Amino acid sequence: MKKNVLIGVTGGIAAYKALDLVSSLKKKDLQIKVMMTKNACEFVSPLSFRTLSGHPCEVDLFDKTNEDPISHISLAKWADLVVLVPCTANVLAKVVHGICDDLVSTTFLACHCPKMIAPAMNVHMYENPVTQRNLALAKDLSYQIIEPEVGHLACNDTGKGKLANVKDIEEAILHSLCHNDQLNHKHVLISAGPTQEALDPVRFISNHSSGKQGYAIARAALNMGAKVTLVSGPVNIPAPKGAAMIFVQSAEEMFEAMKEQSLKADYIIMAAAVADYRPSQKAAEKIKKSAADKTLQMIPNPDILAWIGQHKKENQVVCGFAMETSDLDKHAKEKLEKKNCDLLIGNNLTVEGAGFKTDTNIVSLLKKDSIEHLPKCTKEELGIRILETMKEIEEEKKKC
Ligand code: PMT
């Protein structure tokens, strides 16, 4: 069933950023309704939110045109989550003291779902002890605060008070909605992205991995309540909030990080695209151009997954990936066995919507005695499926 998110927009310049948030959340298959303070309407029109959310945007507590005379109660009952974005110093003060003098503050008090606040204001207003005390009160009341950022503010001051990045707010919302305790007390170790094998200080050999698959698994694991360590090659995507990040460059660095971290992990997932070979030598200086042909000598990199498979402890569950361009199931099965994995995810580079850089994947899911072909799904949905399967495997292992 679709989850209902109620966004309360209050009167600050960052109100326009709530438009992006609503638009982005709508694409996540959520029901979004927006309520605004009258001051917020000075910055953005309710019509914009109505258009983006597909629902009337309510402003007035006593709107005579509204068929529902107690819309603040109906909205509060409807919401699975209420979020104030941006939340001004004034509205923050009201909602921590139970003041209900407009639709937003009254509805917020009536809500019995989880509550989030994304403050945005001038740095001096933010740092004022009154606001700091109100923020502390909000935390005591279990409202989740999405901390503002430090930056250049609309008033030309610089400091803390800038609305958190919209993507971070979105992630916090999704995290709060999806959060479950399935993997409570589990430590999940994931590798992601490519490795870069240096030729000289300027050049390297690498591959097309964007890190999206490994990062999506990390987000899924966090949402399922796990402690997550993400060992990442060089990528251009934001780190999942809450994951312990270890950044590496080469396969050898990834090997060292994975060896060390694997000692503490319950589930280990190798989604990284690790270079099988590296140049036999890294030149200390930039290799100079010359007219002559050049031959590059390559030597094998350590096979990280094979090492983990060989050294895994009794109750540890290990999942590998296989990236193939032909005979996917055959090669994936060979890798499952050779690297002593409990689970192997095969994806085929030649299929549209699968593999590198996409937001979706189409995979075969191989266990020791079975193979399943999954339909196209998002990389995060695949993450959930992988983690659920690892949990089943762990429970089976414990029975033996
Ligand atoms: O990052 P994205 O753009 O989202 O793309 C996702 C992905 C395609 C990179 C990912 O889904 C994937 O398939 N990752 C594994 C790619 C790969 O290296 O496949 P492989 O068949 O070469 O290796 C098999 C397994 O051994 C993998 O789990 C790999 O991490 C591991 N390996 C490989 C070589 C090596 N030296 N050490 C390893 O641990």
Write up what this structure looks like.
The chain is α/β, with parallel strands linked by helices and 400 residues long. The chain folds into two domains: 4-177, Rossmann fold; 181-276 and 298-399, CoaB-like (Rossmann fold, 3-Layer(aba) Sandwich), CATH 3.40.50.10300. It is built from 13 helices and 21 strands. It has an eight-stranded mixed beta sheet with strand order 12-11-8-13-16-17-19-20, sandwiched between helices. A five-stranded parallel beta sheet has the order 2-1-3-4-5, sandwiched between helices. A hairpin with a 5-residue loop joins β6 and β7. α1 (17-26) runs parallel beside α2 and α9 (212-223) crosses α13. The protein binds ligand PMT. Ligand PMT is lined by residues 193, 209-213, 251, 270-274, 276, 301, 303-305, 320-323, 335, 347, 355-357.
